[in-house]
User: Fold this.
Amino acid sequence: MKHQPLTFAKAALVLALAVTLVACSSGAAASVSSNSSGATTSAAPTAPSVSADTASTSSGETSAARLDLNTASADDFLTVPDVGDRMVREFMEYRPYTSIVQFRREIGKYVDDAQVAEYEQYVFVPVDVNQADTETLKQLPGVDDAIAAELIAGRPYASNDAFLTRLATVLSAAQLDAAKSYLATQ
Assistant:
């Protein structure tokens, strides 16, 4: 068997799976379900995923590094659970994404809302600091509706750095550091 080098996304997924396995072996029970193709899958308990580059969500949980919907490769997308070749084509067809709402609408043509929400745990739309809507801003770790509204009210931002300076007043240092990777380049 030929071994290929791991990409960052694959390495993050492997690490997240290892953490989940440890959590399961610690006495946490995994649930078993069937997907639309009839295959049985095992879902780990809701322990947070951990990777070398983690980001906190608005609820304070930690999640593995996410894939940029506009730049991730087909191989990267295949690391997302329940994404096969067909969904990779759909993910790539609607590029460039300008809003997470756009992603939800387009991918929602092929899968239900629950599956779209599951995909969102692994992907993101880059945040344009002067154009992003509330839902897209809420992808940033620690940002909720109220913070998103404050960020929108503070526009325009002269640069991503100016936006991050404003964000630093409402987020922890770890959340701010993670948020940097979500920003669109200007």
Summary: Residues 8-25 form the longest helix (18 residues). Residues 134-182 form one domain. The two ends are 43 Å apart (CA to CA). The CA atoms of residues 58 and 142 lie 4 Å apart.
